[in-house]
Amino acid sequence: MILRLLSVTKGARGSLLAKALIGMLITGTYIVQAFLLAKGVSYAFAELNWRLFIPIILGIALMVVLRAHLLWIREIFGKYAAERVKETLRINLFEHFFHLGPAYMEDGRTGKLQSIFIDGVEALEVFLVDYIPQVLVTAIGLICILPYMASLDPLVGVIVFVSILISVLCPMFWDKLMNKIGHGHWESYGNLNSQFVDAMQGMTTLKAFNASDEKGNELERDANELYNHTMKKLNVSLISSAFVGFATAIGTALSVGIGAFHLSMGMLAMSSLTVILFLSTECFRPINDLNAYWHKSFLGFSAAEKMFEFLDTTITVLDKGNDRLVIPEGIRPSIDFNAVTFSYNDGTRPALKNLNLSIPSGAKIALVGQSGAGKSTVVNLLLRFFDPQTGSIKISKKEIGKYSIQDLRRQITAVFQDTYLFYGTVEDNIRVAKPEASFDEIEACCRNSKAHDFISALPQGYQTIVGERGVRLSGGERQRISIARAMLKDAPILVLDEATSNVDASNESAIQESLDRLARNKTTLVIAHRLSTIIDATEIYVMENEHICEHGTAQELISRDGAFMELMKAQNAGEKMG
Ligand SMILES: Nc1ncnc2c1ncn2[C@@H]1O[C@H](COP(=O)(O)OP(=O)(O)OP(=O)(O)O)[C@@H](O)[C@H]1O
């Protein structure tokens, strides 16, 4: 995993190396300072002239000033590297997220993803930007200091070496436990985040059903779990740090003690003992820093595992097709579903079973049926949000999997029952369909979709901010914006999935007229519950239990008195009661 993590430092490696080099210079200033201090102390014991102390004091002051500057420069390199690494990681994550598409979002909870994408990436900063350069600094520093210490007193060298080994290896013993706790932390953090997002989005429902207390309790339980994990993490981290602190303190004390003993035995000079005294502290300084970074990094490790787990999620809808799907102006493609079977998720219950459906070039086909029959699933498959397990779907007689997904979706305009508005102006939201559109084109589409009047009445007209944190629009208004989007995209295949379900009666006939006009030179698939809106379709397909049970013109189906008539009767009865 560490190697994989290192791969994301590409683009920031120069800065990381610079940071490590500056770190070595900083260690150098500490070593020089230690030597100067050692010299000063030995002068003090020798009771030499005070003037001799002046260069030592000046030298130490110089080291302090130099170190302050180096620390400042190291911070700049560190921050630059951190931002680059985090940017790379997030770009990788977002790219994969978009490749996974709607199929992934079926299982994933937004709050969990958010916690990994945002906070997980932040948690990795310490490991990538502090720990890795510190490994270099520590290794080089020790390679320089240890042999010198051993040359002064071999036994002291061995003691320092063993203490360093213990300090480095000790955190590794806790690794498994720390990792487990880290996983628990992200799990509970993700749960809390998901619950919170859920509560925010469903606030109206919670209040309407007096269920906010229960939701509040669930949030409290999740917050409590997170607290417990955080405390566990702190405990283990503190114990591990205490071990390392103990090993370094014992190492320093032993090396000075042994040095003093050797001095008393006449085996070591006073000047060497003072050097050992100050240098042994410098030996352990980078180790302590390394240990501190290791502990700060451990949440990053478990976050990294979650990130890699996400990055390894198989993309189920593969974009392998290289063929271009460019439909020349005026040409209307045909669509064919042949023996299509499809199940969501675990595949236990098929949403479509052996479905056959043909939409001839330029025809308007309607798909009707009871709720849950599988109508929207047909659209999901046509847009390749999912791929069927068996059977084939063809556009213009060629399997849709052979076209690039971008090309495929470029040729289809879909209007759904639910319209998502992004944070931004009304104009931006419509422009999503055709970024290069002129304002006049946008306005013309809004007039046709009966959206222009209400948009003009908004505080800043087309420049009014909508979406999250923006002006709230009604369901019908949102749907008219989505119809304007569809009109602007004007692709050769039109899919209307309950496109006017939220539109009020006064606007419906006018919008229906515009949609009919839009559908005139296209191949159209309409899904509608209100059967009056599809009566003019070239052919109506009736779905029942995941497959087509009958099809024909409205007239044919009415005279057959089958499933379609059942639906008509049920609807008429419903309308009469309404
Ligand atoms: N994203 C999904 N994940 C899992 N199951 C799903 C998903 N979407 C739909 N289903 C299931 O697949 C079946 C068909 O659903 P689909 O939405 O296609 O029906 P529909 O005919 O469009 O219904 P409605 O008219 O109510 O919109 C249903 O049993 C539904 O529960």
From TrEMBL:
One of its GO terms (cellular component) is membrane. Pfam families: ABC_membrane (PF00664), ABC_tran (PF00005). GO terms for molecular function: ABC-type transporter activity; ATP binding; ATP hydrolysis activity; ATPase-coupled lipid transmembrane transporter activity. Residues 20-295 form the ABC transmembrane type-1 domain. It comes from the Archaea. The chain crosses the membrane at residues 21-46, 52-73, 131-149, 155-174, 234-254. PANTHER family: ATP-BINDING CASSETTE SUB-FAMILY B, HAEMOLYSIN SECRETION ATP-BINDING PROTEIN. This is Transport ATP-binding protein CydCD. It comes from Methanosarcina barkeri 3.
